[in-house]
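Figure 3 (text version): structure tokens given as input.
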């Protein structure tokens, strides 16, 4: 399982848990419908019905399948992780001043910041309700701990002061809390449902964390190297927001005289459309994207290595395919 498996599309990878995914979608639909208030129903349907990749629920379903966990329990957990993820996206878009999400207007842009904040709060509560139904206090604690980690990560602001290694550490710390922690949660909580042994629970955690790191680094590469029609969001959005992502750090690490747009990013300043276009051209012409992709592949290798510590199972083979998807995707 350490060997890199041939790439498959996401639908083929997740075919073994298609029935469970349909059940998760039904739970998400009920979360929106049960809110009773028409405006809230509309907003929640926009968030929960946007049909993202649903990676976190899929991971929970695959692990649950490998261990033979009761599907209804796993579906509740899987839906809880997706609702929590959706809540963080709504609030992230406010913090990042992002006007779109998956090709659609973000909630604060479509309605208002007030509506977005309240909808995000409602989603956090809904996630807590779903996992509370499992009657597993340890899972409730895991969710609470992960929310703490994710919230703290928002207070990490990577900056470049001439020490690229320090900036890389800041960047990795931020994405560890912002992205990897939530994917690891899907693994940790399902391991509790499965009554997995300590060593296997640790392997699942390590897999989820490394997959999350690989996924986020690849996302940051796609923000520069991707195509808007494929990624579902404007290319260069992170650059316009002044975010110091890994490709930018890798460029600055080797640039003797960076152009103005790159100097602004080094100082954490947002870019205009023209400056973002200049930065994209500069980064694409450099070796920074390849350097960042190499980091993503390294995390992918860590994820595959973690899977070798688990018993052989077709569901774990699908998780290995997810690792390849995470770093080879174009969306």
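Below: residues designed for each position.
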């Amino acid at each position: 399982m350490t060997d890199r498996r041939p790439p498959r599309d996401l639908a083929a990878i997740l075919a073994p848990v298609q029935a469970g995914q349909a059940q998760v979608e039904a739970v998400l639909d009920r979360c929106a419908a049960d809110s009773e208030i028409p405006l809230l129903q509309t907003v929640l349907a926009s968030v929960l019905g946007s049909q993202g990749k649903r990676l976190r629920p899929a991971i929970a379903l695959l692990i649950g399948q490998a261990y033979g966990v009761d599907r209804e329990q796993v579906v509740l957990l899987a839906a809880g992780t997706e609702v929590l993820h959706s809540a963080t996206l709504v609030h992230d878009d406010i913090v990042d001043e992002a006007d779109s999400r998956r090709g659609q207007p973000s909630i604060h842009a479509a309605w208002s910041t007030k509506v977005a904040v309240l909808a995000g709060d409602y989603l956090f509560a809904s996630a807590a309700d779903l996992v509370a139904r499992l009657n597993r206090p340890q899972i409730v604690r895991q969710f609470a701990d992960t929310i703490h980690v994710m919230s703290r990560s928002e207070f990490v602001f990577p900056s470049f002061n001439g020490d690229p290694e320090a900036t890389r550490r800041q960047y990795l710390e931020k994405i560890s809390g912002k992205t990897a922690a939530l994917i690891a949660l899907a693994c940790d909580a399902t391991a509790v449902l499965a009554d997995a042994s300590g060593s296997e629970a640790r392997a699942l955690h390590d897999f989820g964390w490394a997959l999350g790191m690989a996924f986020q680094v690849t996302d940051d590469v796609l923000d520069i190297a991707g195509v808007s029609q494929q990624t579902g969001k404007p290319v260069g959005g992170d650059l316009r927001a002044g975010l110091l992502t890994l490709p930018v750090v890798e460029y600055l690490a080797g640039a003797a005289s960076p152009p103005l747009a790159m100097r602004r990013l080094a100082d954490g300043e947002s870019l205009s459309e023209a400056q973002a276009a200049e930065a994209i051209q500069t980064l694409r012409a450099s070796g920074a994207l390849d350097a960042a992709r190499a980091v993503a592949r390294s995390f992918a290798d860590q994820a595959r290595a973690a899977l070798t510590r688990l018993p052989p199972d077709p569901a774990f083979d699908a998780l290995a395919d997810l690792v390849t998807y995470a770093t080879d995707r174009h969306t």
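The chain has 17 helices and two strands.
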